[in-house]
Each structure stands twice: as structure tokens, then as C-alpha cells.
Design goal:
The structure is a single chain. By secondary structure, this protein is an all-alpha fold. The protein is built from 18 helices and no strands. The radius of gyration is 27 Å and the shape is globular. The N and C termini lie far apart (76 Å). Bound molecules: protoporphyrin IX containing FE. The site of protoporphyrin IX containing FE (HEM) has 25 residues, from helix 5, helix 15 and helix 16. This is Tryptophan 2,3-dioxygenase. Pathway: Amino-acid degradation; L-tryptophan degradation via kynurenine pathway; L-kynurenine from L-tryptophan: step 1/2; Pigment biosynthesis; ommochrome biosynthesis. Its EC number is 1.13.11.11. Keywords: Dioxygenase, Heme, Iron, Metal-binding, Oxidoreductase, Tryptophan catabolism.
């Protein structure tokens, strides 16, 4: 069908665009270097004269993943720089060790410039959206049947997603620690043994402050935590004691023995759980067992932000915490979708082309050990009813209002109530 505008304005337009394409500057294909990208699909099955139609999809899917990994890393690096830009010291958090080459400095790091939190949030949310896409993308590859995959799988060996450098960088930059990886993957650097540049990049990603480390440092500076300030932690502990004692009284009043025992057991287990956050050494023992990841002071900051998230100055921090959980949970979902696809394609007892036990290895990576922000997920355990949340002092209320510009943990030494 002819364009109704042709013969009139459009004709002039066509001439103009002809002129534009002939002018200076780059054209679409040049700018995007499509000659490189669109000629990078090399079907091994075709090279062996047994072309398998679905190998094209297999390659494109992996390439699309790698491009998105690149974008995620780009955003992640910028977010880490924003978190780190006000501070040039990597002091240890609460004395807990971190695996960065720590430059010990005693000064209190300057607070995060709040105008940056919006930018951080924007970029974290972008990462979240990309990850959502990556989770969904698995189903496109699943349109390939196991029989089709079998027809070219042998040509791939020893290539495997296990050798994806960007995936390892992504994990390390988020804060997955070597010792938390499943055993088979603790020495993953050997996979890149033939590539010294890749090894260098991996080492650097392990030594640089990870997102988790920087987030913890930021949380540890949450205003109102310090005892000489609002003393949130002291007040929160007293509220929890009151709550537990009320619950215990309620339990003891039950006339039905079965019900009484149930409620008493419940209070007892709640007490034990709270003990793990009020007793720092208890908390640290959980950290050393990998059951918690955050330093004590960071966990305190996260609890405070969660309880007072309605205060204007805590809105964005609270959204940042949610975005971090989204990232963790979407990566777990990706792992899960990938492992299901692997089982569908090669079953549960074939070795992977990368040499692992395949499905069994991948299944073991679905555990909490790979959740960098595990403690944020578990915050709900420590919530208390709204009416028991310690009321903010007038000073804290002002400090957490939009009118107050900037967090400064040290500007309020004499303002406890
Ligand atoms: C037919 C589709 C696929 C199959 C059968 C498959 C199979 C496997 C297997 C068996 C492993 C374990 C390592 C080994 O090879 O021994 C693995 C790891 C991996 N694959 Fe895939 N894969 C598929 C698609 C993908 C896609 C589309 C991506 C996207 C980039 C991907 C990324 C990865 C990554 C990053 C790992 C390492 C995971 C880790 O160590 O935690 N795979 N894959």
C-alpha cells in the first residue's frame, strides 16, 4: 500500500534524509559496530557439515546474556563508585574482616552525599529490570528440544557458561565470597588459567570493595544509631524486651495447657532469635558460619531504616534495600531457571561440558550461601509492631525530615532526647 504522504511532504523528507546519510557522522551500523556483532555467530555444527538449526538460537541467547551482563557490570561499577566517592578509606566494619586489601585509616568516613542516593536507586532499579529480562529469557532457549541440543552439544566441549568471566565478575562485584562458594567452584580461577588478563580481572574484582561491603559501610553510618545520639539500638532492645515479656504474660494466662505450651515455646524461640542480634558475639558466630553476611553495625542500620522507613529521609534508603533484595532474588531465580533448563536438556546425571557434575553442581548453588544480601531477607524476623517502635526524639524527627540537609552522625552529640 502506498504511503498517503508520499508525493507531498514525504518526498521532500526523503530527499532530506538522503542528504543526512551522505553528510558527516556515523551511520547506524557503523555506530553500533554491527559488522562485528552480526558476524559473530559461528555455528560449529555447520563447520562440521551437519548444521543444526537451533545452534543459532543457542549462540544468540548466550551472546545476548553476555551483553546484558556487561551492562549490569557497568551499572554496578558506577553504583559502587557512587557509594565510594565520598570515602577513600576501606576500614574494616566493626572489626570483622573483609577480603579487600584494606587501607586502614582511623578517620570517620564522610557520609554519602544524599543527592547520590537517587542516582544509586535509579541504577539499581535498572539492574533489577535487566535481571528480570534475563530470568524470562531462559524460556526462549527452552523452545529448543533436548534432541536438537544433543545434535550439536558434543561440538561445544569444553566450552561452558562456567567459563563466563563476566558472570564471575558480577558475582564478585556484588560480594559473593570465595569461601561461600560451593566447593567445586572455590577454585574457579583455574578455569581462566590460560588467560592471565582474565585472572587479573578476577583478582581485582575480589580485592576491590564489593557492593555488599560498601552498602554495609553506608548502613553502619545510619544516623541515630550511636549511643551518644538517639541510641536506636538501646531503645529497640528495650522495646523488644517489653514485647517479649508481654507475650510471655499472655502465654502464661492461657488456661488450655496445650495452647499455653505452644505460646510459651513460641516466646522462647523468639527470645533465642533476638538474642542473636543483641549479642554481638552471637551474631559474629553466625557470620563466621556463613549464616549471616552483614557486619553487626550494618545490620543495626538496616533494622533502623526498615522500622522508620516512613520518615522522609529513610524513604530512599529503604528503597535501596529493597532493590538489593530484588537483585539477590532475581539472580537466585535465574540460577533456578537455568538449573531447570539444564535438567530438561541433559538430565540430572550427565557431566557438564565444563567438567562439573552438571545439574547436581548447579543445584547446589541455589542455597543461601550465594545470597549476598541474605540479612536483608531475614530482617522481617526482627520486626516489632508499629506501636512498639521507639518514638523518635524531636531532634531525630527533624533530622529525618526532608528539611534537614544531609546525614551527619557527629553533629548531634548532645541531642539524645
Ligand atoms: C541448553 C542450555 C544450557 C545448558 C544445557 C547449560 C548447561 C550448563 C552446565 C551443565 C553448567 C555447569 C558447568 C559445566 O558445564 O560443567 C552450566 C553453568 C553455567 N551456565 Fe549454562 N547451560 C545452558 C545455557 C546457559 C545460558 C543461556 C547461559 C547464559 C549466559 C548460561 C550460563 C551459565 C553460567 C554463568 C554457568 C556457571 C554457573 C555457576 O557456576 O554458578 N548457561 N551450564
Amino acid at each position: 500500500m502506498a504511503c498517503p504522504m508520499s508525493g507531498g511532504i514525504m518526498e521532500d523528507h526523503d530527499q532530506e534524509s538522503d542528504q543526512l546519510t551522505e553528510g558527516p557522522g556515523m551511520l547506524y551500523g557503523e555506530y553500533l559496530q554491527l559488522d562485528k556483532i552480526l558476524t559473530a555467530q559461528r555455528l560449529l555444527s555447520a563447520e562440521y557439515n551437519r548444521e543444526v538449526h537451533d545452534e543459532h538460537l543457542f549462540i544468540i541467547t548466550h551472546q545476548a546474556y553476555e551483553l546484558w551482563f556487561k551492562q549490569i557490570i557497568y551499572e554496578l561499577d558506577s553504583v559502587r563508585a557512587l557509594f565510594n566517592s565520598d570515602s577513600n578509606s576501606y576500614e574494616s566494619l566493626n572489626g570483622t574482616s573483609n577480603n579487600h586489601t584494606a587501607v586502614q585509616k582511623n578517620r570517620v568516613p564522610p557520609v554519602l552525599n544524599e543527592s547520590r542516593t537517587l542516582e544509586i536507586l535509579k541504577r539499581l532499579n535498572r539492574i533489577v529490570l535487566i535481571l528480570k529480562l534475563l530470568v524470562d529469557q531462559v524460556s526462549i532457549l527452552e523452545t529448543m528440544t533436548p534432541l536438537d541440543f544433543m545434535a550439536f552439544r558434543d561440538y561445544l566441549c569444553p566450552a561452558s557458561g562456567f567459563q563466563s568471566l563476566q558472570f564471575r565478575l558480577l558475582e564478585n562485584k556484588l560480594g559473593v565470597r570465595q569461601e561461600h562458594r560451593v566447593k567445586y567452584n572455590q577454585n574457579y580461577t583455574r578455569v581462566f588459567g590460560r588467560d592471565p588478563k582474565a585472572i587479573d580481572e578476577i583478582k581485582r574484582s575480589e580485592e576491590e570493595p564489593s557492593l555488599s561491603y560498601l552498602v554495609q559501610k553506608w548502613l553502619a553510618r545510619t544516623p541515630g544509631l550511636k549511643a551518644h545520639d538517639f541510641d536506636f539500638w538501646g531503645k529497640y532492645e528495650r522495646s523488644v524486651e517489653k514485647l517479649l515479656s508481654e507475650q510471655e504474660q499472655f502465654a502464661r494466662k492461657q488456661t488450655n495447657e496445650q495452647l499455653r505450651n505452644y505460646h510459651l515455646a513460641n516466646v522462647c524461640s523468639r527470645k533465642a532469635v533476638f538474642e542473636t542480634i543483641f549479642n554481638e558475639s552471637h551474631h559474629n558466630a553466625l557470620v563466621s558460619r556463613g549464616e549471616r553476611k552483614f557486619a553487626y553495625s550494618a545490620l543495626q542500620g538496616a533494622v533502623m531504616i526498615t522500622l522508620y522507613r516512613d520518615e522522609p529521609r529513610f524513604n530512599q534508603p529503604h528503597q535501596i534495600l529493597n532493590a538489593l533484595m530484588d537483585i539477590d532474588s532475581l539472580i537466585t531465580k535465574w540460577r533456578y531457571n537455568h538449573v531447570l533448563m539444564v535438567q530438561r536438556m541433559i538430565g540430572s546425571s550427565q557431566l557438564g561440558t565444563g567438567g562439573s557434575s552438571g545439574y547436581q553442581y548447579l543445584k547446589s548453588t541455589l542455597s543461601d550461601r550465594y545470597k549476598v544480601f541474605l540479612d536483608l531477607f531475614n530482617l522481617s524476623t526482627f520486626l516489632i509492631p508499629r506501636h512498639m517502635i521507639p518514638p523518635l526524639s524531636k531532634h531525630m524527627k527533624t533530622k529525618l525530615s526532608v528539611a534537614c540537609n544531609g546525614w551527619d552522625p557527629d553533629d548531634n552529640q548532645n541531642n539524645s532526647e
